[in-house]
Amino acid sequence: MTTVHGISDPNYVSRQYRDASNLNVRLRLHQEFSTNPQGWHRWLFEQIQLPRPCRLLELGCGTGSLWAENQDRLPQGAEITLSDLSAGMVTQAQENLRSVRAEFRFAGLDAQSIPFQQGTFDVVIASHMLYHVPDREKALGEIARVLKPDGVFYASTVGLDHLKELKELAARFDEDLLFWGQMPADSFHLGSGVQLSRFFAQASVQRYPDSLVVTDAALLTAYMLSGRIDLSAERQEALAAFVAREMQAHGGQIVITKDSGVFAARGSLHA
């Protein structure tokens, strides 16, 4: 039996991110096989302008990788609140950042109902998470509300062609996986600037140039199994064998498109 879960299904999101295990599998693939020598989190941090002093909120902080990988760049005196809907993720972020010299605060919260007063933050970050939010308009309204009038919202996401070769690989293995990895057109992707225009006066986007050249069939299979699909043990074994054959047929590697970037939205219309 093959099951494909919706990317914003609350039950799926809750199970998927109850701890860091699935996320770590996906991060490892990108860390080992990305062609851009500047890692994603180092690049992303360069796109974020942090005023001094700064009050910052990150929604969906995951394991805290953005801050762990940029600890040498953190501005002094910044008040950084890291939050996630998953208590397991918050705990992992706390552990990962225990030795980092910065003023971190941690919170479990829902982006659709942010428990801070209007105009609290200079910067709000939502990295690769808005497509998981069931009521995105409500979340964007909340983000615009808690930003200061001159504050900036940074929202990273992927484009519709992100990992397109991997999606095609999955569909060749099983036509029931045709929609594995596909992002609905009304989700939040790099073509979704119009969604931000309802809440912010300006929004610009920067893309991160990168691709994957994967030479480890087992890790690629683990990546595919780490999110949105449920396969029986027998079908998992069949997928692993299929990926290995495909990689061998392509000279021992599979080249995969990456399309990621970040919006910077300014001028909250709810300030």
TrEMBL record:
UniProt cross-references to CDD domains, sorted A to Z: AdoMet_MTases
Pfam families: Methyltransf_11 (PF08241)
Signal sequence residues: none
Origin species: Levilinea saccharolytica
InterPro entries associated with the record: Methyltransf_11, SAM-dependent_MTases_sf
One function term, GO molecular function aspect: S-adenosylmethionine-dependent methyltransferase activity
Protein name per the record: Methyltransferase type 11 domain-containing protein
PANTHER family xrefs: 2-METHOXY-6-POLYPRENYL-1,4-BENZOQUINOL METHYLASE, MITOCHONDRIAL, METHYLTRANSFERASE
Organism classification: Bacteria, Bacillati, Chloroflexota, Anaerolineae, Anaerolineales
Occurrences of domain Methyltransferase type (ranges): 57-154
